[in-house]
Design a protein that fits this description.
Layout (H helix, E strand, L loop, with lengths): L9 E6 L5 H13 L4 E5 L2 H6 L1 H13 L3 E5 L21 E3 L5 E6 L4 H16 L4 E5 L5 E5 L2 E5 L4 H11 L9 H24 L3 E6 L13 H4 L6 E4 L11 H19 L2 E7 L9 H13 L3 E5 L14 H39 L1
Parallel strand pairs: 1-2, 1-12, 2-3, 3-6, 6-9, 9-10, 10-11, 11-12
Antiparallel strand pairs: 4-5, 7-8
Helix pairs in contact: 1-3, 4-6, 8-9, 9-10
């Protein structure tokens, strides 16, 4: 077990799909009753255009219930999340695959226009009262695999090919070479180097969650690059076990959490670990409790669930949102009580040690 010396147990849940304030009020009370103390709010391009004032009120309502807030860059540059609406304004900023096809919904991270757009989004986050930005699963795309490696991958746009030529002194190949892999990682990290500095200069916290898969531009295997950025405060991952073949939820989440925490310890970063609370099949809800226990046992003290009420407002919702949400609350209560008892035991041990010292 890796101990993180966290004084506060942070329990968060992702919330999106609703912008009606009277429902937000009710939902935030329900979130408190399910033993959470943090909400991750999506702030998409659509929210920015249509709900800016509403989002400010949502942040205020959330904080008014004693809940901390992280703001998620949901779909800003494309999946995960929404499609990138920014591309309607900058059609030259699409990611391009190595086979020459254009990705219709993902923005090139090396596009100066997209980086400017991201800075403007950060300004909007500040305007709605955001203090912490949750950068959700940064990656570059791949649409096919060959022996576990991307066969057709991004980004192969003219801009990226020129940058590759400048860095390596030769044209970018269409094969997925070590140099291509390094360039993709560099592209993601360089983007975050710029945008997290911008938000940090505005006194905002930067939190990053990375994928576990080995086929994307940033993942636990290559996280050292992004973890080394002094503008990044918190590094996490989402060890979602559903869809993995014949895995124990407890073992899968424990091992991934332990690896994440080792990286955080190495770079002196805080952490965030996500528990899968969506797409839960009927009858498998108790796996959420097991997975939450595993994250806690591995040493995580910032544990979050995707998402609110089993993500019932999405097509990927749990089969039984009511039962899933009830079980999520059970899992949060379980680690809350464990944490309280550990703190009590620590306080008791300190009093006993102090008393023994005084007697001597």
């Amino acid at each position: 077990m890796i101990k993180q010396n966290e004084s506060k147990l942070v329990k968060g849940v992702a919330y999106h799909g609703n912008r009606i304030l009277r429902h937000v009020e009710t939902d935030m009370r329900g979130i408190v009753k399910h033993h959470f103390n943090l909400v991750v709010h999506m702030f998409s391009h659509n929210d920015w255009d249509r709900h800016l004032k509403i989002m400010k009120e949502i942040v205020q309502i959330t904080e008014g219930h004693g809940l901390d807030v992280w703001i998620d860059n949901w779909g800003l540059g494309g999946p995960p999340g929404d499609k990138s609406h920014f591309l309607a304004y900058s059609p030259g900023s699409h990611q391009v695959y190595s086979d020459g096809t254009v990705d219709p919904v993902r923005s090139c991270l090396n596009s100066p226009d997209f980086r400017k757009f991201t800075r403007e989004w950060i300004d909007a986050v500040k305007e709605i009262g955001g203090k912490s930005i949750f950068w959700d699963e940064p990656h570059l795309a791949a649409k096919s695999l060959d022996n576990g490696k991307p066969k057709d991958w991004t980004c192969f746009c003219e801009r990226c090919k020129l940058l590759f030529l400048e860095q390596y002194g030769k044209p970018m190949p269409t094969q997925f070479t070590k140099e291509v892999e390094s360039f993709r990682v560099w592209s993601v990290v360089d983007y975050f180097r710029e945008v997290t500095k911008y938000s940090k200069d505005k006194h905002m916290e930067n939190i990053v969650c990375v994928m576990l898969g080995a086929t994307f531009g940033i993942n636990l295997a290559t996280i050292d690059e992004i973890a080394s950025l002094d503008t990044v405060d918190n590094i996490g991952s989402d060890p979602y076990w559903l869809g993995e073949e014949k895995v124990s939820p407890y073992e899968f989440v424990y091992k991934a959490t332990a690896k994440n925490l080792r990286i955080c310890e190495q770079y002196n970063k805080r952490h965030n670990i996500w528990i899968q609370g969506y797409a839960t099949p009927s009858g498998r809800e108790e796996e959420i409790v097991s997975a939450t226990d595993a994250a806690y046992d591995a040493g995580a003290r910032t544990i979050l669930v995707w998402g609110y009420r089993g993500s019932e407002s999405n097509d990927y919702r749990a089969e039984n949102p009511d039962m899933t949400w009830k079980t999520v609350g059970d899992a949060m209560l379980r680690i809350t009580e464990r944490h309280r008892e550990e703190k009590r035991q620590q306080s008791l041990a300190a009093v006993i040690n102090d008393s023994n010292s005084s007697d001597n």
